[in-house]
Design a protein that fits this description.
single chain; alpha/beta; six-stranded mixed sheet; 7 helices
Length: about 325
């Protein structure tokens, strides 16, 4: 075994000429070829696993919009508007006028505004009282209502067109009790123009544009007394300085009012409109010029009135 081919002895002797040798020849098994060296290939990197796509987060359904809560009486604010008549911009303590800094009433209004109020430095009004009131009460520019400062009770140029709704009328539609104390000056030639026929539940004051601060004799009504309450003359209620009289009436109405009903009050002072008369208790005698001392005292009365009305509102809650 292990040999590929065998011969006889004679054949062997002839082939080898007498030399001894193997009787059989073996065919060597060829060695396998040596493989050429090769540069090993880099290992194939493992593929980066792709994270599974997350399931989308379900969007919750939009809840229905709840109906607005029914407002309670306390959720509706009470509104109080206090207006002075023909007062100059500088005739106020918060604008730095030293003549309006010393009276306790001026100090009181300064404290009230500094601690609880906001000063609007870019507020504008008309040059005269009538168009200013018409603008405030109608919500329109004077050019669209009336630029005439008609003071006469029978002057057709004054007042607000009856086709325009006034602020008290709109507020009554919203459930407000409304009152005005002081100067009306929005038309009084006919009953339909009276405050109580234009959205005002209670009115106490003068209808025309100018009158005495004690007797209420109206320069615009031939000297007759111009002091009204609702639909008739306010008999027996004059004789007191207009600022104090109107303040007392405003405080009375506020105190008697049912606080559960929203209230709108408009205290429309005659001061510091002419005629220039004042109470001694408000005068600052350090002011040399008598005319300016009169003006200062009229403004100081309005300041005290504002503080007293604010106190009445706070006491009512």
């Amino acid at each position: 075994t292990g040999y590929d081919e065998c011969i006889t002895l004679d054949e062997y002797a002839a082939a080898n000429q007498g030399h001894a040798g193997p009787l059989c020849t073996a065919t060597p098994t060829p060695s396998p070829p040596t493989p050429l060296p090769t540069t090993p290939s880099p290992p194939t990197p493992e593929p980066t696993p792709v994270p599974p796509t997350p399931e989308p987060t379900p969007v919750p359904p939009t809840p229905p919009t709840p109906a607005p809560p029914t407002p309670t009486p306390n959720a509706v604010p009470h509104l109080m508007l206090i207006m002075t008549d023909d007062q100059g911009w500088y005739n106020a303590p918060w604008h730095g006028n030293p003549e309006h800094q010393r009276h306790p009433a001026d100090q009181g209004i300064n404290t009230l505004i500094a601690e609880e109020g906001v000063k609007l430095d870019r507020m504008y009004a008309f040059a005269w009282c009538g168009p200013t009131r018409s603008s405030i009460m109608s919500g329109r520019f004077p050019t669209h209502v009336s630029e005439e400062n008609a003071v006469g009770i029978d002057d057709p140029r004054g007042g607000v067109d009856l086709r325009m709704k006034l602020l008290p009328e709109k507020l009554k539609e919203a459930g407000y009790y409304t009152f005005i104390v002081g100067k009306w000056h929005l038309g009084a030639r006919a009953d339909v123009q009276l405050p109580i026929n234009r959205g005002v539940d209670h009115f106490f004051g003068m209808l025309t544009g100018m009158g005495d601060h004690y007797s209420y004799a109206s320069n615009a009504a031939s000297g007759y007394t111009d002091l009204w309450e609702n639909d008739g003359p306010a008999y027996g209620k004059g004789g007191e300085y207009s600022c104090d009289l109107y303040t007392a009436e405003a405080v009375r109405v506020i105190t008697a009012h049912d606080a559960s009903v929203p209230m709108f009050g408009f205290v429309s002072h005659q001061l510091p409109h002419a005629p220039y008369t004042a109470e001694e208790k408000y005068m600052n005698n350090d002011i040399d010029d008598f005319g300016r001392r009169l003006l200062q005292s009229m403004v100081s009365c309005v300041h005290e009135s504002t503080v007293n009305i604010t106190d009445a509102l706070k006491a009512k809650g």
